[in-house]
Amino acid sequence: MSPGRRERGLVRPYVVTDGRAYPTRNTFDLVTLVMAHPDRPLTGLSPEKRRVMELCLGGALSVAEVAGYLELPVSVTKVLLGDLVDSGHISARSPIPAAELPDTQLLQEVLDGLRARL
Amino acid sequence: MGSALASDRAVYLPGTVRVAAKILVVGHFAVGKTTFVGSLSEIRPLRTEETMTQAGALVDDLRGTEDKTTTTVAMDFGRLTLSESLVLYLFGAPGQRRFTRLWRDMTHGALGALVLADTRRLEQSFPVMAVLEEHGLPYAVAVNHFQGAPRFAESEVREALDLLPETPLVTCDARDRTSSTQALIALVQHLQSRQARISQEQA
């Protein structure tokens, strides 16, 4: 086995999602914030879903961060998170609505926050 | 990363954060996107990789390209907690326009984009600006000044990049946090005035 392949992980990404490329729900954005419910049992979860839970039990993270820390493609991460939302293990905060102008207040808050860092 | 638990490396958001905003940092290869994101991020920048032919729906996106083998597209991103309720994510995105699904994902819900440009290779910024225009994402341009790169008058750079009069053009040093913050501020101010203009037109 070449070093390049080893670095990429031994399990092909779509094995961990049972071959699915799309999540059961289409509500995840890269910056959707997700949190795990600490009282849900982890028994019966696949190893990858356990890893997601282990990570998300620590606090809130974005979908992109979950993918980054677990070194999984974003698409695979969305499938796993979708299942975990369905089973009540994870809750997600609503993503930003698309194709709308960001609201005035949000832009002002971003601007104020950036200026405060100067 | 070996056997280290991901949860040991993770830097979690404060429990009070309710809203996540997203800005893209785009530009051609080696223009300084990762450096820019790294200067501003409060966490060590993370990388996600997407393999672009494994999902079935990508076949259309690759139509017309010679090479249909799998391609890995990497995105580096960082995070800035701007207030107790608001977090901003910066995504450093590659400029290849053929990754339609990736662009859809990245531009979805994004406030806008900062295009990094290099005066030695201004023409390489065109495809990047074109893809933003295709997706209707407003942008500002920041010339990342590299040592030894020629300095041109603003009007010359504007002309070379064929910028609209309202598109902001600033100079920055992607290695410097203050300078990079100022470039983002120029973008957000542009987004504000654009929004004011659009709501006026709609009124």
Automatic annotation (TrEMBL), chain A:
Q: What is the lineage of its organism?
A: Bacteria, Bacillati, Actinomycetota, Actinomycetes, Kitasatosporales
Q: What is this protein called?
A: DUF742 domain-containing protein
| Highest taxon of the lineage | Bacteria
**Which organism is this protein's natural source?**
Streptomyces hygroscopicus
Which Pfam families does UniProt cross-reference here? DUF742
